[in-house]
Amino acid sequence: MPRSGVCLECEARGQGGGHLRFCLSCGHTGCSDSSPGAHATAHHESTGHPLVRSMEPGEEWAWCYVDEVYLQPAGSRP
Predict the structure, then answer these.
(1) How far apart (Å, rounded) are the C-alpha atoms in residues 35 and 30?
(2) How far apart, in whole angstroms, are the C-alpha atoms of residue 66 and residue 70?
(3) What angle (nearest 5°) sits at the alpha carbon of residue 68, between those of residues 20 and 30?
(4) Most exposed among 4, 5, 70, 78, judged by the fewest C-beta atoms under 10 Å?
(5) Residue 23: partners with Cβ closer than 8 Å, 6 or more residues away
(6) Which regions of 1-78 does DSSP assign to beta strands (E)?
(7) DSSP annotation of 6
(8) What is the pTM of this model?
């Protein structure tokens, strides 16, 4: 379960967080690489946590930083 519905690092800097990613290891919420902070990737780089899931409405994919692949739920179409 996400610990936050916003990117806390962006919020602390007074910035918008853009698209959010949820760490499947610890629940950290960070902004995507298309956002100025890229805090989800920074979280991966500092912790080694490999998987994030999109928190955007209607998106169910996940990303593995280690293998650099998108993961889709079983039965979904790309």
Answers:
(1) 10
(2) 11
(3) 20
(4) 78
(5) 29, 30, 40, 43, 44, 47, 49, 51, 52
(6) 20-23, 29-31, 51-54, 62-64, 69-71
(7) S
(8) 0.85
Q: Are 35 and 6 in contact (CB under 8 A)?
A: no
C-alpha distances (whole Å) from 72 to each of 15, 31, 33, 59 are 30, 20, 19, 10
| CA–CA dist 15, 13 (Å, integer) | 6
Burial of 52 (0-12, 13-18, 19+ CB in 10 A): buried
3-state secondary structure of 10: helix
Q: Would you state the structure tokens that stand for residue 56, as one six-digit string?
A: 């955007």
| Structural element, H or E, at residue 41 | helix 39-47
Token representation of residue 50: 């490999």
